[in-house]
Amino acid sequence: MNRKKGDKGFESPRPYKLTHQVVCINNINFQRKSVVGYVELTIFPTVANLNRIKLNSKQCRIYRVRVNDLEAAFIYNDPTLEVCHHESKQRNLNYFSNAYAAAVSAVDPDAGNGELCIKVPSELWKHVDELKVLKVHINFSLDQPKGGLHFVVPNMEGNMAERGAHVFSCGYQNSTRFWFPCVDSYSELCTWKLEYTVDAAMVAVSNGDLVETVYTHDMRKKTFHYMLTIPTAASNISLAIGPFEILVDPYMHEVTHFCLPQLLPLLKHTTSYLHEVFEFYEEILTCRYPYSCFKTVFIDEAYVEVAAYASMSIFSTNLLHSAMIIDETPLTRRCLAQALAQQFFGCFISRMSWSDEWVLKGISGYIYGLWMKKTFGVNEYRHWIKQELDQIVAYELKTGGVLLHPIFGGGKEKDNPASHLHFSIKHPHTLSWEYYTMFQCKAHLVMRLIENRISMEFMLQVFNKLLSLASTASSQKFQSHMWSQMLVSTSGFLKSISNVSGKDIQPLIKQWVDQSGVVKFYGSFAFNRKRNVLELEIKQDYTSPGTQKYVGPLKVTVQELDGSFNHTLQIEENSLKHDIPCHSKSRRNKKKKIPLMNGEEVDMDLSAMDADSPLLWIRIDPDMSVLRKVEFEQSDFMWQYQLRYERDVVAQEEAILALEKFPTPASRLALTDILEQEQCFYRVRMLACFCLAKIANSMVSTWTGPPAMKSLFTRMFCCKTCPNIVKTNNFMNFQSYFLQKTMPVAMALLRDVHNLCPKEVLMFILDLIKYNDNRKNKFSDNYYRAELIDALANSVTPAVSVNNEVRTLDNLNPDVRLILEEITRFLNMEKLLPSYRHTITVSCLKAIRVLQKNGHVPSDPALFKSYAEYGHFVDVRIAALEAVVDYTKVDRSYEELQWLLSMVQSDPVPYIRHKILDMLTKNPPFTKNMESPLCNEALVDQLWKLMNSGTSHDWRLRCGAVDLYFTLFGLSRPSCLPLPELGLVLNLKEKKAVLNPTIIPESVANNQEPVISTNNHGQSVGFQNTFSNSQEEEEIDMDTVHDSQAFIYHHLNMLERPSTPGKEQSSGEINMHPVSAAPLSVFSKESNSSKHSDHHHHHHHEHKKKKKKHKHKHKHKHKHDTKEKEKDPFVFSNSPASARSIRSPSLSD
Amino acid sequence: MDPIPSLSRVPSSHSGAGPALSPLLAVQTLLSPSPNAPFPEFQRAGSKQAGTPADNYHLARRRTLQVVVSSLLTEAGFESAEKAAVETLTEMIQSYISEIGRSAKSYCEHTARTQPTLSDIVVTLVEMGFNVETLPAYAKRSQRMVITAPPVTNQPVTPKALTAGQNKPHPPHIPGHFPEFPDPHTYIKTPTYREPVSDYQVLREKAASQRRDVERALTRFMAKTGETQSLFKDDVSTFPLIAARPFTVPYLTALLPSELEMQQMEETDSSEQDEQTDTENLPLHMSTDDAGPEKENTSVLQQNSSLAGSRNGEENVIDNPYLRPVKKPKIRRKK
After folding, report:
1. E strands present in A302-448
2. CA dist list (Å): A5 to A353, A468, A493
3. Could you give the CA distance from residue A476 to residue A418 in angstroms, rounded to a whole number?
4. Cα separation of A313 and A298, whole Å?
5. B238 neighbourhood in chain A, CB within 8 Å
6. A432 at B interface, C-beta within 8 A
7. Quick one: closest CA in A to B300, which residue?
8. Binding-face residues of A in 10-49 toward B, CB within 8 A
9. How many C-beta atoms surround the C-beta of residue B279 within 10 A?
10. Which residue of A lies nearest to B333 if distances are taken between CA atoms?
11. Which residues of A fall within a CB distance of 8 Å from B280?
């Protein structure tokens, strides 16, 4: 933590330097999902009295540790397995987040910590004092890993290769410790030797060069030997084993692609583009790709779509596509480019600490952006930048800020830079996934801001400098102290910038990197005719959460009759008004062409504008050189001019959004003109469709002519002779393809005076479906058909319901009947001729949910649940789950919520588990201030359990559970829990309890103590202290959560102490954290731990009994109690903390 | 050679009674009554009373055959025979004669004649394994019994087929003995001509509704024959949804183009050669794959020489570690 920054360079937090590591996996069993192997770390002590070596390891069962061939004692303690031990009564998230951050810190390799502590045998102490090399050899195995390594084993006939079974490493940030013991830090680099023995029909793909492949003696297996000579962090080590098809890139023979059986044709097509990305990056960075080879592996059930590791990337197999697919192509190429950018920055160049992460994400995101600009054009690039900017602005305003470079002074929690968040940003593993996504987004936007400041040329020079330094360092095979040159730090990066550019970017860094928040501008103007001056007023809101004050230059572009002029305003503390002199006097010379920013001169119809003012439109910060949100007021005709004549797509999009507020015929005309203009960027035209629909709805009473866009669509896409029939599909022109897809979707949003979708529009869409003919098309029309179904769904309006009658077929609206007919047919056809990525099924499911929600079809989750099952394509599952989540919210179904939560715990696909929590968070069944029958104590316990111990195998999932808990209950104690007990009541309870001597075991007497205290925390301390008499250190550590880091340090030093495993065992849900089942510690006092667990079980039963009793009462007292609640409220009832609930009824006594 | 012409007439004589039956079948139906109960058989054959001229005619013939069988039996020295035995023998002889007639007719037709000749019969008999040489001697045997000729019954009148139009007379170059032309309606095509549909709109309409009908029928069939799901609890048939079945390998169906699409692709874009071999790849086959990239490499080079930069120097030797052969284990490593 107390790492020095600046000129000193990198200082390792560890008392040793790791130089080389061997990972050998001798056996992989797909049937049992187990792995057996060993690692050997070569380390050089850097201090004389090194007697303990701390390493990271999770899940692994460690059999034996040897140091220089001598048996070594070791201790294993992972506080993140169960964050709050023995179910403290606390149920507030603040408490949890602190405890979780402390637990993660306690094993954080960047602080020199680790789960595994190895004692250097005393025989070697002398050896160590001479700072001689140590070889740490660890034998380990993994059994049914729940994280880190993911096995995909299809349930069918045949051997594992025929079944397409495969396994790959995965995880969020540094998660390598899940599958082998290592120093799981991005800053500890070493060279690697990797060996994998696999079935002869399988291929093992890993980092570095494949040196050789050797058969085992029985010729039934082979061993892949990999060497990675470029120093690499353990966190960048990866593995994929499966019966892969191998494709050597035809353009670059050192690049090899792998995919699952039968997909080779798709792989060929998908990767045929990759060499261009390589060329692009190598050219702009003027640097060769740092590794001698590159591998791409496409696997099923991916954790994330793209994961970059040293010299290899793991992709989701769902990115593969054939030449017939349009929509997926750019997306997949983006993923490939992203992965490759991270090869340079992220894998080859690693980071010094977590707070330097933004540099890597920023640079890789930035060069990826450059690639986008080159590949998809400036319009697409600017559109993307705008989109990212809008996203980050929206997120920061919602949650209160994203901090790129957190600096943690002093180590005290008090000055937490992110106190507005419900999680700690000190560690990547405590970060909400959404926050991390936004973090990456902001990082590359800030890089772009730096580029704006110092120019792209200097920017690329800086990158080149970083890379060449790193590659020099990486070739120093035997000078491991040089390797720190391969780590990037914020200060080092900034120093490079100032060296290269000679510019001071400190204010910029201070504003966007060291500080969180975005800028919110409100702009308005007045034209002073007398002075011929534009009086611009720019206000800022810097008091709302997520905002900050901006001081500095701000560019304003004014389009006047005589041309476009840029002005740079100085935004200062107190000046709101800015006078900008205008160049054009008046509009006397009407016929003159008007010059635009890009030098183009155009004719405009100026009749709409204000006769007195020469202003056509005004833009604030047109280059997006501030992370800001601008709300600017100008009149409708100015927006219309901006839309028609401004050539920047961002300006056009802004104008479209602004025009929504001006439903006039002039706006309508401007939008239709844009729609028809083929030179116009297709995304702008697509956006115009939706705006036009909104305008048409606002103008419904005065709207003349056919429904908006209908005649346009007819003209563009229908036959000349029979305008009601669409032409046979020809998607050669992608711009019109996208427009053709979008227009019906937008048209379906039209509403008539009765707020219904006009019959004409519905029939039109049905005709499009009917006459759709793709026989002559080179491309698949699956996305188009899917969007037509979306259009049908968009046309649905709420059913007219007569006193909540049950929905049956007989009272089905005839229009809805037609829609249902189509959906049924589409959905059934999908079973016979499935579409690419089942896009049509996805749209059908969404449409059915819309029909249910609008009361046309009885609301029923059964259909969705069947599609959500494991074994359906992931997109289909997500769509179905989304519908179930929505149902849970709308129908307040406890049963479905339970179903979803059980899926979170047990689904085989990590992405699905993550996604369910994500969707529940985004569309929560209730929120913290809401009365809901779903909000009950059992649910609190369940979720608490989930984030406390149920998700310890997956950082992302745990953070997802934290997010959900936050959304449902907020930071403080959930309102549905009974209030903290009062002394008097507790006494009453005690009396009752005394009647039954089995209810409260040994601690009865002790419980008197907390009675006095009304303070939660104090209470729990007292409670636990009473235990500590018998249980000693195990109880202590959870108690002192706030500095458990210190405690664990202490704890680990007391080598004679037993480790925690025995304790976890007792907590009911053994399978949640398999590691705990392993009696790892050689010192473990068997008697102690077993006694302990006995005690726990005892407890457990008592509480169950008591709780049942309580439940019964509860039901009588509270009318809102539902039946479902009774069903299974004791899923996690083994929490000692639920003892609290016993007292709750007595509150009302 | 008396029976032969008469038998050979059987099919033609019968054609009136049962026009739908083939001659042989007709013979069988007509001549295969079970021996003990001939009458019911006949009744079943169609006529309500046994008195139609055709029935009488056939009965008379059969009775003659019975007499023949009986006399042959007597010749052979039998004094009496059970009715069933006689009937069986009658049946056999009848079949035999019928077969001779049928085969003889085939032979004669084979040689493009309408009337069987003696040689046809001879060939037939030879073919049936009958020693023709013995026939004259047998005919002239001494103990030969002479039976009376079958009673003269009128050949049943064949009901006139419905005539439609005038039969065309033979043109002069066709000899008169050739059969007459059949009724004109059997060979003249009837012009039920309609304008071919070339109207674009109608064609599209038709294609669309046809496809829709096929799809609907197919999906309904699938839904009827398999498990279904329904959106309405009370009604499972109006909008039947084929039940969702999980796949063992879901990504394959989701990613690979369907056969229909593949076919379409080939039709629309013939230039893109899609090596069939690729799809049939075995899980792991480094040797065959060896050639794959190379081939593609050369074709790419041809197509796009500008892209083939410096990286593509030696296309003939791809040195990729994954393509190298797997080494045999080293013996010395063994302890």
Report:
1. 306-309, 312-316, 350-351
2. 10, 22, 12
3. 40
4. 9
5. 809
6. no
7. A250
8. none
9. 13
10. A217
11. none
Angstrom distance (rounded) from CA A474 to CA A471: 5
pLDDT score, position B156: 67
Residues of B in contact with A318 (CB under 8 A): 251, 254-255
User: In the structure, how many helices (H) and strands (E) does chain B have?
Assistant: 13, 2
Instruction: Enumerate residues 706 to 735 of chain A having a beta carbon within 8 A of any beta carbon in chain B.
Output: 719, 721-722, 725
> Quick one: A932 exposed, middle or buried, by C-beta within 10 A (0-12, 13-18, 19+)?
middle
Check whether A68 has a pLDDT greater than 90. Answer: yes
User: How high is the pLDDT of residue B227?
Assistant: 87
d(CA A436, CA A439): 5
* One-letter amino acid of A858: P
Distance, in Å, from the CA atom of B167 to the CA atom of B182, rounded to the nearest integer, reads 7
Q: How confident is the model at residue B198 (pLDDT cuts 50, 70, 90)?
A: confident
Q: Are A823 and A785 in contact (CB under 8 A)?
A: no
**Among A710, A723, A807, A800, CA closest to A761:** A710
Q: Cβ atoms within 10 A of the Cβ of A1011, count? A: 18
Interchain CB contact of B197 with A (< 8 Å): no
What are the helix (H) ranges across chain B? 3-14, 23-31, 38-44, 53-75, 83-110, 118-127, 134-139, 184-187, 200-225, 250-255, 259-268, 276-279, 286-303
Which residues does A620 contact at the CB level (< 8 Å), separation at least 6?
Answer: A521, A523, A538, A554, A555, A556, A630, A632
Average of pLDDT values for A251-279?
94
The ipTM estimated for the assembled molecules is 0.77
The DSSP annotation for A234-248 comes to GGG--EEEE--EEEE
The residue written with tokens 């969707």 in the block is A919
Q: Which of A251, A266, A727, A877 to mutate to test the interface with B (most CBs of B within 10 A)?
A: A251
Q: What does A322-360 look like in DSSP terms, one character per residue?
A: -TT-STHHHHHHHHHHHHHHHHHBTTTBEESSGGGHHHH
Residue the block writes with tokens 């919210």: A889
Is the Cβ–Cβ distance between A206 and A227 less than 8 Å?
Answer: no
C-alpha angle A956-A902-A436 in degrees, rounded to nearest 5 = 15
Q: Residue A229 contacts by C-beta under 8 Å, 6 or more apart in sequence?
A: A191, A208, A209, A477
In angstroms, rounded to a whole number, what is the distance separating the alpha carbons of residues B65 and B60?
9
Contact A427, A421 (CB under 8 A): no
Run of H or E residues at A670 = helix A665-676
* Interval A703-754: pLDDT, tens: 888 898 999 999 999 988 888 899 999 999 999 999 999 999 999 999 999 9
What is the reported pLDDT for B12? 37
Amino acid identity for residue A1042 in this structure: H
pLDDT surpassing 70 at residue A1010: no
Q: A838 to chain B: which residues are within 8 Å by CB?
A: 253-254
- Cβ atoms of A771 and A744 within 8 Å: the answer is no
**pLDDT on residue A1052:** 43
Residue A943 in contact with residue A921, Cβ under 8 Å?
no
Q: pLDDT at position A823, please?
A: 94
Q: How far is CA A272 from CA A268, A289, B245, in A?
A: 6, 18, 34
Asked if residue A645 lies in contact with residue A637, where contact means CB atoms within 8 angstroms, the answer is: no
> pTM value?
0.75
pLDDT digits (tens, 9 = 90+) for A772-817: 999 889 999 999 999 999 999 999 999 876 666 666 777 788 899 9
- Kind and range of the H or E element at A1036? helix A1033-1039
Q: Which long-range contacts (CB under 8 A, 24 or more apart) does A717-720 make?
A: A719/B200, A719/B201, A719/B204
Provide the 3-class DSSP secondary structure of residue B166: coil
Pairwise CA distance, residues A849 & A857, whole Å = 9
